[in-house]
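Allow me, if you will, to draw on your knowledge of protein folds for a short while. I am sending you one protein, given as its amino acid sequence and as whole-number tokens for its backbone shapes. Kindly check, if you would, that the fold set down in the tokens agrees with what the sequence suggests. The record follows directly beneath this note:
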Amino acid sequence: MEKKLSKILVPLDGSPTSMEAADYAIMLSTLHHAQIVLLHVLNVAEYYSSLQFFEVKQTIESKEIIEDAKKEANKWFNIVKKKIDEKLGKQIELETYITISQSTVKSILDFAEEKNVDLIVVGTRGHSGIKKLLLGSTASGIVTYSSCPVIVVK
């Protein structure tokens, strides 16, 4: 039985490995003529704690954090869009989404099921901090609980 690969989900957080995952998804998309769906899950608590980790001293309101994070996510989406346009023109269908959640893994998995994705391509470690040496907690959770195949990109 051969299953068609028609929709690939790439969770992006702007980290080098998430952008590598996007590159890998673009390559797979060209081989299978599959749509790419980019998703950024904004976990406000994680985002704010990462700012504190980098010693941002000023108090930032939640609305400002959300708007800043959305602007950042759109920058990452535009980088991927530009790569697709440069390599393939408009041959690949691309959708982008930003969601706000308390659980990054659950949001990605729920989104994957809701959008009926055939494959998730995720980077090994993102910007949420070094919680595990070989595989980040988000990637590990996606691999463990996903109902569709997952490719983890280094």
About this structure: Residues 53-59, 129-134 have pLDDT under 50 and may be disordered. Residues 7-153 form a domain with the Rossmann fold fold (CATH 3.40.50.620). The chain has five helices and five strands. The radius of gyration is 15 Å.
